[in-house]
Amino acid sequence: MGLASDRFGHRKTLFAGLAIFTVASFGLAWSEQVWQLLSLRLLQAIGVCAPAVIWQSMVIDKFDKKTSQQIFATIMPLVALSPALAPQLGVLLTEMWGWHSIFVVLAITGALLAMITLSLNDQPKAIEQRSSISADLKSLFGSREYMGNVIMYGVASAAFFAYLTGMPEIMSQLGYSAKDIGLSFIPQTIAFMVGGYAGKKLVAKLGDDAVLKQLLGLETVAILMVFVACQWELSSVWPILLPFCLLAVANGALYPIVVNRALSSAAHCSATAAGLQNSLQIGVSSLASAIVAAFAVMAQSAVGYVILGCLAVMWIGYLIANPAVTEELTIPDNSRVVSDE
């Protein structure tokens, strides 16, 4: 979707994606067999990729770097509400009108958004201004600033996914009920939103570079606390849940900063950059979830080691995106040598 958006414009690509999503949702509402359900869900997922990617590109294209960071910091915490609210809305619709009504509502929502999309004033790049797909991808993979920030975003998200995959099994092994497991996701959702809006205020006051360094420190402390808690035989989930809420605060503030930095460094192909960023983030997060799921019997230890690995890669991403820091760590201070002589 990102590649198409950079070549045909945001409006056309976004409308096409929403149209696919809407048609698939209507089909799902009337599906009667499993193969129909799975096939249409795949089509629905393909369609929803368009808004998931293009909104980020639109922010980069329409606003300067400072303003776009504030917009990301406003929207991203709201996205965290969806995992908490969507299941509740789904249960309500199912109880009132049956499970088919969920997809009817999604289809109506998609149709309304598609109509709104048609009102957008958007022009694709002129042919002479477009670069080839291979050139765009080569520039993205060759950009330290882009790749470093994408790595930080991906592994920070992977730590979150590893926890979300392992926590139900951990709580089940500790004897918690299904209701308790569901309620345990509320504190981290609130923490993520608090982090997002606190980070927005801090960035406006201190700048994103200073805040990013502080957030990496907070991520380090929180992950180490979770890792240590995961090595002990626990009788309660709180020794893991509390430090993870600290990690959720850090992630809520970190996401807008690194996403804005990555996409702002690739303004010439912002939609392609957003698409690649989201693909890498989903891929790394899925890998983290798969590893934890593979060791579900020892989920507590698995979660601890996976998020510790995410922390190590996160710092690697920071050093890639900030080569000046690497140089300070490796190059001796010549001025001091001269003064000593």
From TrEMBL:
Entry membrane topology: Multi-pass membrane protein
Where is the protein localized? Cell inner membrane; Cell membrane
Question: What superkingdom heads the lineage?
Answer: Bacteria
Q: Which residues form the Major facilitator superfamily (MFS) profile domain?
A: 1-327
Q: Which Gene3D superfamilies match?
A: Multidrug resistance protein D (1.20.1720.10)
Molecular function as annotated in GO: xenobiotic transmembrane transporter activity
Q: Which SUPFAM superfamilies match?
A: MFS general substrate transporter
**Segments crossing the lipid bilayer:** 12-30, 42-59, 71-91, 97-120, 146-165, 185-203, 215-234, 240-259, 280-297, 303-321
Pfam families named among the record's database cross-references: MFS_1
Principal location class: membrane
Q: Which GO terms describe its biological process?
A: xenobiotic detoxification by transmembrane export across the plasma membrane
| InterPro entries referenced in this protein's UniProt entry, alphabetically | Efflux_drug-R_Bcr/CmlA, MFS, MFS_dom, MFS_Efflux_Transporters, MFS_trans_sf
Its keywords, alphabetically, are: Cell inner membrane, Cell membrane, Membrane, Transmembrane, Transmembrane helix, Transport
Entries under PROSITE patterns matching the protein:
MFS (PS50850)
One GO cellular component term of this record is: plasma membrane
Q: Family, per the entry?
A: Belongs to the major facilitator superfamily. Bcr/CmlA family.
The protein depicted here goes by the name: Bcr/CflA family efflux transporter
Report the source organism: Vibrio maritimus
